[in-house]
C-alpha cells in the first residue's frame, strides 16, 4: 500500500543520533523505508545503532562528526555523498542545553549551547543545501523546542531559549529563500521527552509533577510521539508546507 509518508528510496541524515530523540528518529526513518546516515561524536553508539538498522534491511552509514566544526561537517557530507550518491533529507537534531539565567550563565556555557544548537545547524545546512540546490529537491527538519517561543518563570534556560528562538526564525528564513529550489524547511518543537538531556533534572519527581500540572495532556511525551511530525516534514506529505514549526508539546504552547 502506498503511503504519503513513505520514505522508501530516500537518503536521510540525522544528526545527534547517538542518543535520545536522534536514535528514536533514525529507527523510525528506517522503519518508513529510508536509508540513513547517522552522525554524532560518540561513534561506538552509532555502531550499535547501525547494527539494529541493518537488521531492519536498510542501508546505514555511521559518521563521527562534531557539528560545531565546519571541517568535520564538510568531510561528513562528502563521505555521505560518496556512499549514497545523494541526500534527500536533513534532520538537524544534535543539541545541548544549559541551565541558567543571563546573570548566572558563563560565556563558555553560552557559547557551547549556541555553537551546537545554532552554528551546528548553520554548518550542516550550508553543506547539505549545496547538494539539495543542485538537485532542486530537499527536505530539512530542524529540532526547535517550546523554548523557541516561550520563556519560563521558574526555570531560566536563557542560552537554550535564545538558540531555539534562532532556529524557529532561521527555519522561516531558509524556507522563504530556498522555496525556489524545491527545498522545504520546517521545524518540530518538543516540550518534554525523557532523554540524556532531560532525565536528571526535569524528570525528578517534583519537576515532573509541576510539568504534568501545567501541560494540558498531563504527561511528558513518550518515545515515538515525535516520529509522526518529523516524518511528515521529511516526506512528500508536506510537499506544500514550509517555514513552519509544529509544537509536539502535549498542548504546552496552547495555554
Ligand atoms: N528531550 C526533550 O525534552 C527535548 C525538548 C525540546 C527539544 N529537544 C531537542 O531535541 C534534540 C535532541 O535532544 P535529546 O533530548 O535527544 O538530547 P540527548 O539525548 O542529549 O541527545 C543529544 C544528541 O546530540 C548530539 N550532540 C551534541 N553535541 C554535538 C556535537 N557538537 N556534534 C554532534 N552531535 C552532538 C549527542 O551526541 P554525541 O554526544 O555523541 O555527540 C546526542 O546524540 C536537541 O536539539 C534538543 O534541544 C529535546
TrEMBL record:
Keywords: Oxidoreductase. Gene3D superfamilies: NAD(P)-binding Rossmann-like Domain. It comes from the Bacteria. GO terms for molecular function: oxidoreductase activity, acting on the CH-OH group of donors, NAD or NADP as acceptor; quinone binding. InterPro entries: NAD(P)-bd_dom_sf (IPR036291), SDR_fam (IPR002347). One of its GO terms (biological process) is bile acid metabolic process. Signal peptide: none annotated. PANTHER family: 3-OXOACYL-[ACYL-CARRIER-PROTEIN] REDUCTASE, SHORT-CHAIN DEHYDROGENASES/REDUCTASES FAMILY MEMBER. This is Gluconate 5-dehydrogenase. It comes from Clostridium amylolyticum.
